[in-house]
Amino acid sequence: MPLWKRNLIVLWFANFTVMMGMSLVMPFLPLYIEDLGVTDPKELAMWAGLVFSGTFMASAVFAPIWGALSDKTGRKVMLLRSAIGMSIVMALMGFVTSVEQLFALRIGMGIISGFIPAAVALMATNTPKEHVGYALGTLQTGGVSGQIIGPLVGGVLAHFLGFRSVFWFTAGLLLIATVIVVVFVKEEFKKPAPAAKKAKGERRHFEMLDHLKMIWPVLIVSFLITFSMMMIDPMMSLYVAQLAPNAENVALIAGMITACTGIANIIFSPRLGRLGDKIGYKKVLMLAMCGAALFYLPQAFVTAPWQLMICRFGLGMCIGGLMPQVNSLIRTRVPHELQGRMFGYNTSAMFLGNLCGPNVGGFIGGTFGISSLFFISACTMISNALWLRFAVKDPKDQQTANAQGA
User: Considering Cα of 255, then 258, then 262, then 263, what sign does the dihedral take?
Assistant: First the structure.
């Protein structure tokens, strides 16, 4: 078996384990904050927002730093650093006695995190170019599968064992991911010699600036993708409640709809990745964004949860062709020795979208109604597709533009 296929299988299970562990605790974090003594509704909402956003803010700042370090030390080292660090921080969360301590640890989680970006970078840099789309599309399904199963397992554990035990269980899962990486992941990485580093340092600096000029339009694409999706995702349970006001199992219905989106993502992400390998990642990404816009629009007009589920399944098909194609674009446009840094920048762009989307969506949804968000997300996706078409140049076009500018 080729090394890249072996790494793909191993990292799939590692991503599944990590994302299942991380999603175990997400559904009940507000309840855990309340259990720590925050009972006032306004304070509870404020602290819940801070605890959620603190991780994203710290990750957005530190992702490029870890990415640059991975270019020097290798991506496997970053996988181990992240998994071990997150397991320690997660275990400590089970011992906190105040919401301030929890907030500090969530920021620490953001600082030390980076397992998924490191896995993407390792897979991208150790896979032949003709298979990158398929590999990254398949890799994404591991994380999505973990996200689907995690909340269910977390809910069961929290019910029978209590909130704190879920954090310790998650720490154990992260340690399992560490063992998987240590034993099974093999990376082809040549550490630059000190003399070569010194001789090429200045030239690499200018090379990085040149490649950043080429990549920054792609970073905007990543930001807008996550921004448009995160405007709506946190509101989904509220929207289901509006569609079925008399239903007693709103949480279950909302969970099924969310799972439906994830299942479609799992099914179609590898297929769209393979299609990108054949016809080009930019084309598939444009088609996926236009398709997502088309599936967003009817969600504003549905009158029953089953109709929403059909639309969300279609949306999940298209989501499977978004971020894997973006990562493939970066892989094919950046030299090997700079890819960790560029993937770090891309991770920061995604985290900024995760930060801004819920806040903007909450304001607009509260002012104009949740259904208005589907129109805005559709328009954002179409605008993003146009930006991709005209701003993200192919490597040959970029070289011509640089030559003319010189």
Answer: positive
Nearest-angstrom CA–CA distance, 377 and 140: 22
Nearest residue to 82 via CA among 147, 168, 177: 177
Of 231, 45, 9, 39, the residue nearest 141 (C-alpha) = 9
Supply the angle between the helices 163-184 and 3-25 in degrees, to the nearest 10: 170
DSSP 3-state of 176: helix
Which residues does 264 contact at the CB level (< 8 Å), separation at least 6?
312, 313, 314, 315, 316, 317, 319, 320
Evaluate whether 15 touches 143 at the Cβ level (below 8 Å).
yes
Tell me the per-residue pLDDT of 353-362, one tens digit each, with 9 for 90 and over: 988 888 888 8
Helix residue spans in 231-300 (DSSP H): 236-243, 250-279, 281-296
The residue range of the domain holding 30 is: 1-184
Same domain, 257 and 338: yes
Q: Which residue has the tokens 């084309």?
A: 283
Instruction: Give the separation between CA 262 and CA 265, rounded to whole angstroms.
Output: 5
Instruction: Determine the average pLDDT of the residues in 104-122.
Output: 90
Amino acid, res. 156: V
- Rounded-to-integer distance, Cα 392 and Cα 297, Å: 26
Instruction: Write the CATH number for 78.
Output: 1.20.1250.20
Q: Is residue 168 part of a domain?
A: yes
Q: Are residues 222 and 77 in the same domain?
A: no
pLDDT tens readout for residues 77-96: 999 999 999 999 999 999 99
The single residue listed with the structure tokens 């200045």 is: 202
Question: pLDDT for 235-257, tens place per residue?
Answer: 887 888 889 888 777 777 887 88
pLDDT in tens, 362-405: 888 888 988 999 999 999 999 999 999 999 887 654 444 444 44
